[in-house]
Automatic annotation (TrEMBL):
<comment type="similarity">
    <text>Belongs to the glycosyl hydrolase 13 family.</text>
</comment>
<keyword id="KW-0326">Glycosidase</keyword>
<dbReference type="InterPro" id="IPR017853">
    <property type="entry name" value="GH"/>
</dbReference>
<keyword id="KW-0462">Maltose metabolism</keyword>
<dbReference type="GO" id="GO:0005987">
    <property type="term" value="P:sucrose catabolic process"/>
</dbReference>
<dbReference type="InterPro" id="IPR013780">
    <property type="entry name" value="Glyco_hydro_b"/>
</dbReference>
<keyword id="KW-0378">Hydrolase</keyword>
<protein>
    <recommendedName>
        <fullName>Alpha-glucosidase</fullName>
        <ecNumber>3.2.1.20</ecNumber>
    </recommendedName>
</protein>
<dbReference type="InterPro" id="IPR006047">
    <property type="entry name" value="GH13_cat_dom"/>
</dbReference>
<dbReference type="GO" id="GO:0004556">
    <property type="term" value="F:alpha-amylase activity"/>
</dbReference>
<dbReference type="Pfam" id="PF00128">
    <property type="entry name" value="Alpha-amylase"/>
</dbReference>
<dbReference type="GO" id="GO:0004575">
    <property type="term" value="F:sucrose alpha-glucosidase activity"/>
</dbReference>
<dbReference type="GO" id="GO:0000025">
    <property type="term" value="P:maltose catabolic process"/>
</dbReference>
<dbReference type="GO" id="GO:0004558">
    <property type="term" value="F:alpha-1,4-glucosidase activity"/>
</dbReference>
<dbReference type="InterPro" id="IPR045857">
    <property type="entry name" value="O16G_dom_2"/>
</dbReference>
<dbReference type="GO" id="GO:0033934">
    <property type="term" value="F:glucan 1,4-alpha-maltotriohydrolase activity"/>
</dbReference>
<feature type="domain" description="Glycosyl hydrolase family 13 catalytic">
    <location>
        <begin position="25"/>
        <end position="447"/>
    </location>
</feature>
Length: 593
């Protein structure tokens, strides 16, 4: 668990630093390439630390940089103690830590320990024979046979990237389990020696080198139900069925996470944020993050970021349109901090597994509204309670890949898996819908190279280099260089908004959240109250999330005549009968102090 506070100006001296810190996720392959090989790298990241510091970043989360065959962009680790050569060396990590710490920033790494790469030496040993000491470090099961005598997998579970969760290994004639790609066999957390190796080999190794904590991949999938039975058939057209109840939030999960905390996280005072998918009920989330449970500091819950997405273990890429009211109620649901300090929440709308927020929750179709809606999204995020996470490029309003790009530009194992599954079905309608859904939702959208400037390759890689993913066609108009000195840019607004968040941390970071007008499909308004300081300080946030002029909420009736505008995404006008006239995609915040 992360340690208690750094310098604090407003009296919350007992709060851990990570609560009001701004985290920023770096996707190393796409951030900055220093050597012209088309892959981002650690020296590239190090060269931009001043940029991050200037933005207002407190903690950098670096997606996996470990040695890997890159079947799933490093979420398939071959060696936890080596750096993937195109990213640099272990000495570069030391420099990253030192240079970040010198600037007052911390660094967390991505801990991927639900599975390894099949090229990891543990798996090589495990698969070598049934009596190898590491056989039980992975999950092996004998085949089943159907009525015709055809060999079938031990269960009917569907994997994340389409297809079954089991792959048959000729060598020992058994199947191994993989919730993700067949290249990513699941570790067997039931085995104590395996758990110990994870703590030593992955966690202590990096904490001893000075990292400040971990973003923990797939944190609720370590404990599987041990009876390994078929899931109920919910998709009669497929042999593979959605089965999260078999392997998610399983019987021993809290025991495992508690042990991980006691053994490693707590002694090092390491900050932790776990990835908690398939857990849409706050009552199930609290046990992971309640202070008494001593498991994790924070988790990511995905209901909001998944808006528009189909069933995650089924037709994920069949796009589902959603109304603003849905976005509001989900925001409210996850603002569950109640002032007792017993559980803490996180705030985020982007990461490397989801398409760009400005395209999904804003309006990126015209340049005018692109800028305005990106700022309104920023204002929404910075005024929410919990720890804020930004994803690289969000701060300049980076957009999805152009719709004119073909399927060949999609590199992600999940995108290609779903596309192939649609093609295999032979159903032209499904192929069309899948391509449409990928165009809105694919993980690829957030993974294209970062847009630094208008030079060839967007300043991500030097001229003549071939970036591993195509650079966005719009990079000359959307980039850091263009926004850095423009007071009206999205980047400038993020800097201002992040400062505002800290200035009013009692309201925005730690305050309570009350949703107003839940049914309104154009304006998103809420009240934030200082529940920690027990003062009468309040803020009203009113955001026009539509392309038409709207009346904002009645600010005066809540805050009184002394209501003061502290920020607007556009040139603000006066209140009319206590209500602001909001231009298309305009957002404002008023306070009573
Ligand atoms: O994602 C885990 C995961 O299950 C999802 O939330 C993920 O968004 C996926 O796309 C769902 O369909 C983590 C990583 O964030 C992701 O990049 C990896 O592919 C995955 O683990 C496997 O390690």
């Amino acid at each position: 668990m992360g340690s208690i506070s750094w310098d604090r100006q407003n009296g919350f001296t007992n709060e851990p630093y990570w609560k009001d810190a701004t985290f920023y996720q770096v996707y190393p392959a796409s951030f900055k390439d220093s050597n012209g090989d088309g892959w981002g790298d650690l020296p590239g990241l190090i060269s931009e630390l001043d940029y991050l510091s200037d933005l207002g970043v407190d903690v950098i989360w670096v997606s996996p940089i470990f040695d890997s065959p890159q079947k799933d962009m490093g979420y398939d680790v071959r060696d936890y103690q080596k750096i993937y050569a195109p990213y640099g060396s272990i000495e570069d990590v030391d420099v990253l830590l030192r240079e970040s710490h010198n600037r007052g920033m911390k660094v967390i790494l991505d801990l991927v320990v639900n599975h390894t790469s099949q090229e990891h030496e543990w798996f090589q040993e495990s698969r070598s024979s049934k009596d190898n000491p590491k056989r039980d470090w992975y999950i092996w099961k004998p085949p089943r046979y159907d009525a015709d005598g055809t060999r079938i997998p031990p269960t009917n579970w569907r994997s994340y990237f389409a297809g079954p969760t089991w792959t048959f290994d000729e060598h020992t004639q058994e199947y191994y389990l993989h919730l993700y790609a067949s290249d990513q066999p699941d570790l067997n957390w039931e085995n104590a020696a395996c758990r110990k190796a994870i703590y030593d080999n992955t966690m202590r190794f990096w904490l001893d080198r000075g990292v400040d904590g971990f973003r923990i991949d797939t944190v609720n999938k370590y404990s599987k139900r041990q009876d390994f039975v078929d899931a109920p058939v919910t998709d009669p057209n497929s042999p593979h069925q959605s089965a999260p109840e078999m392997w998610c939030n399983g019987p021993r999960i809290h025991e495992f996470i508690h042990e991980m905390n006691r053994e490693v996280l707590a002694p090092y005072e390491a900050v932790s944020v776990g990835e908690l998918s398939n857990t849409p009920d706050p009552r199930q989330v609290r046990p992971y993050v309640s202070a008494q449970a001593q498991e994790l500091d924070m988790v990511f819950e995905f209901s909001l970021i998944r808006l528009g997405t189909g069933n995650i273990l089924g037709p994920k890429y069949i796009y589902q349109p959603f109304p603003l009211s849905k976005m509001k109620t989900l925001t409210q649901k996850w603002q569950f901090v109640d002032g007792t300090d017993d559980a803490w929440t996180t705030v985020f709308v982007e990461n490397h597994d989801n398409a760009r927020a400005v395209c999904r929750f804003g309006d990126s179709s015209t340049p005018e509204l692109w800028n305005k809606s990106a700022k309104t999204i920023a204002l929404w995020q910075v005024t929410l309670t919990g720890t804020l996470f930004l994803y690289q490029g969000q701060e300049i309003g980076m957009t999805n890949m152009p719709s004119s790009w073909g399927i060949e530009e999609y590199k992600d194992v999940e995108s290609t898996g779903f596309y192939e599954e649609a093609v295999q079905s032979g159903d032209p309608e499904l192929i069309k819908k899948t391509l449409h859904g990928l165009g809105h939702l694919a993980r690829d959208h957030s993974r294209i190279p970062f847009q630094w400037d208008a030079s060839p390759n967007a300043g991500f890689a030097r001229e003549g280099a071939t970036p591993w993913m195509r650079v966005h066609d719009e990079y000359k108009s959307i980039n850091v260089a263009r926004q850095r000195d423009d007071p009206d840019s999205i980047l400038s607004f993020y800097k201002k908004a992040l400062t505002l968040r800290k200035e009013h941390r009692d309201l925005f970071v730690f305050g309570s959240f009350t949703l107003l007008d839940p049914e309104d499909e154009s304006v998103f308004s809420y009240v934030k109250r200082d529940i920690k300081g027990h003062t009468d300080k309040m803020a009203v946030v009113t955001l026009n999330m539509s392309g038409k002029q709207q009346m904002g909420t009645d600010v005066t009736s809540i805050l009184g005549d002394g209501a003061r505008l502290v920020v607007s995404t556009q040139e603000g006008s006066k209140l009319v009968d206590g209500r602001p006239v909001l231009k298309p995609w305009e957002g404002r915040v008023y306070v009573n102090h």
